[in-house]
Recover the amino acids of this structure.
């Protein structure tokens, strides 16, 4: 194929992706204008926001393994995909921001969080940490695009260390947006911080494994490496997640105020979804598949493990955010405020909009930016 | 000044006049259109009712903002839109700063905040009518004289007088929120 044909094909792809992104944005804006008040204050949009935010943390892991620990793979395979991983993180965090912007009532005055910063508010710290996180991600992207010309390795290392520190602060702070709310006993405590950090590892690695696959598909060696590398990360993540889940449930049983909502998850209305999707598919099946992927370097097993981990991860986050708000201790002992939960059409539209934007934005960046090995920035600085 | 509220549970006859008056005065737009408060499945006002019926006499609690001295809603608010008004001691909302993140609604252990179904911003006691007219309509309309308001910093205020004379309790005291809303129990 000639250069001109390639360029026009790329332009057509960019246009299609742009249209998809615009459709997704239109769905979010339309859903935003039709939102309703529900009995459960933080509903589907908050759960979806947390989910995308956790997925976004994956690039930091890879960056840490690649740049800080110096593991690049036997044939520098990590080096071939980590630009893509970084862009994947940016695309995921953009979706998280769109969802949280659609969740709040007046997103156009969010800048007041900076000018009227309340130091005791975990949400205020989220916004500040996100700003730092975004700056680091973008600078990292520019640096690794330009590093092909050499001389920026020390800057890259410094950014990677800074990135890991900010990511740990960001995701533990995200957990404690919920964990510091004593009014919701199911959330309250430091346990969510560990839970969120592990979810970052599991969901981030699963998302990256899946999104890197189209690029790696024709390269048997790279595929086998990805199966082994991401398989190992997923095994580690799912084992720790299982450990934390078991102790969360056991500990909750000893606290009646906490057990009132945990029992809904473990033995009540949400128990089928918990045992089937979270435990059976999300922990047992993912563990077996990821182990198989690691030992046999089997890419199909990795894809299945990643898909199941992403689905069950969403369900897990959804249960965590929603169910604990459906029964809250009342001012009179022994009574509970019951808040029925339902998902509205505008919420579904907004989440679907974000889901359309997510892969579209990822492929858009992959098409526009020099993220693949051998691609070099041209006259427009970072563009191909 | 630290405005506090006292509710005499012995005098209250449970007529709900305070509940209706609060909704009518502070949210007439919802009352006119018979729009409920969807979060409480209740009237669009700032007072909700909790009852426990165990055995003989039911136990009643009228729940509105407790104007805590250590308010979780203020700590959770990212912009300082929820704040303690130093002139009155009220926990208030500056709607120009409020982004509508709902953190205050989730953080309040009393469930005293609710989201307005039209503007989707948090509502609470004192409502606009009470705040602007410097009255507590709930106390004004109470036929049993069960509601008292006054300044905790003034030793001669009716609130301090009631606190001296009667046995009182505060709701969810163990959370350390230091509510300025007292219940006379005996």
């Amino acid at each position: 194929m000639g250069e001109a044909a390639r360029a026009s094909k790329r332009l057509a792809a960019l246009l299609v992706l742009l249209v998809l992104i615009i459709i997704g944005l239109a769905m979010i804006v339309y859903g935003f204008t039709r939102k309703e008040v529900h009995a459960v204050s933080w509903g589907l949009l908050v759960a979806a926001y947390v989910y995308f935010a956790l997925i976004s943390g994956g690039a930091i892991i890879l960056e840490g393994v690649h740049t800080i620990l110096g593991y690049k793979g036997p044939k520098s395979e990590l080096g071939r995909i980590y630009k893509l991983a970084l862009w994947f993180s940016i695309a995921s965090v953009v979706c998280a921001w769109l969802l949280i912007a659609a969740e709040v009532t007046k997103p156009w005055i969010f800048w007041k969080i900076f000018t009227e910063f309340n130091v005791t508010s975990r949400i205020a710290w989220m916004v500040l940490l996100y700003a730092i996180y975004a700056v680091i991600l973008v600078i990292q992207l520019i640096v690794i695009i330009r590093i092909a010309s050499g001389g920026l390795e020390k800057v890259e290392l410094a950014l990677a260390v800074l990135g890991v520190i900010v990511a740990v602060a960001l995701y533990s702070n995200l957990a404690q947006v919920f964990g510091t709310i004593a009014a919701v006993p199911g959330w309250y405590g430091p346990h969510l911080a560990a839970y969120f950090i592990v979810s970052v590892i599991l969901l981030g690695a699963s998302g990256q494994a899946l999104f890197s696959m189209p690029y790696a598909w024709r390269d048997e060696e790279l595929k086998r490496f990805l199966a082994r590398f991401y398989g190992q990360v997923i095994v580690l993540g799912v084992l720790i997640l299982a450990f934390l889940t078991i102790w969360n449930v056991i500990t909750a049983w000893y606290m009646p105020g906490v057990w009132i909502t945990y029992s809904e998850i473990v033995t009540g209305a949400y128990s089928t979804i918990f045992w089937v999707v979270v435990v059976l598919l999300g922990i047992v099946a993912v563990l077996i598949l990821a182990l198989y992927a690691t030992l046999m370097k089997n890419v199909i097993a990795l894809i299945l493990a990643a898909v199941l981990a992403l689905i069950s991860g969403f369900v897990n986050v959804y249960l965590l955010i929603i169910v604990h708000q459906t029964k809250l201790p009342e001012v009179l002992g022994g009574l509970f405020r019951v808040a029925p939960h339902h998902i509205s059409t505008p919420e579904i539209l907004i989440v679907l909009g974000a889901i359309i934007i997510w892969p579209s934005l990822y492929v858009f960046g992959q098409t526009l930016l020099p993220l693949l090995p051998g691609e070099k920035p041209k006259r427009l600085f970072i563009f191909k | 000044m630290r405005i506090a509220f006292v509710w005499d549970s012995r005098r209250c006859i449970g007529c709900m006049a305070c509940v209706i008056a609060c909704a009518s005065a502070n949210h007439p737009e919802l009352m006119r259109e018979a729009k409920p408060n969807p979060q409480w499945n209740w009237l669009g006002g700032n007072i909700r009712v909790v009852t426990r019926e165990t055995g003989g006499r039911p136990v009643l609690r009228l729940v509105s903002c407790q104007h805590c001295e250590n308010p979780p809603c203020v700590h959770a608010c990212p912009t300082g839109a929820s704040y303690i008004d130093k002139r009155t001691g009220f926990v208030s909302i500056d709607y120009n700063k409020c982004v509508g993140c709902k953190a205050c609604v989730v953080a309040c252990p009393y469930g005293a905040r609710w989201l307005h179904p039209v503007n989707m911003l948090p509502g609470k006691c004192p409502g606009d009518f009470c705040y602007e007219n410097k009255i507590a309509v709930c106390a004004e309309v109470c036929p049993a004289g069960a509601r008292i308001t006054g300044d905790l910093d003034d030793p001669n205020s009716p609130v301090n007088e009631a606190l001296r004379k009667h046995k009182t309790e505060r709701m969810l005291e163990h959370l350390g929120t230091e509510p300025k809303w007292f219940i006379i129990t005996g």
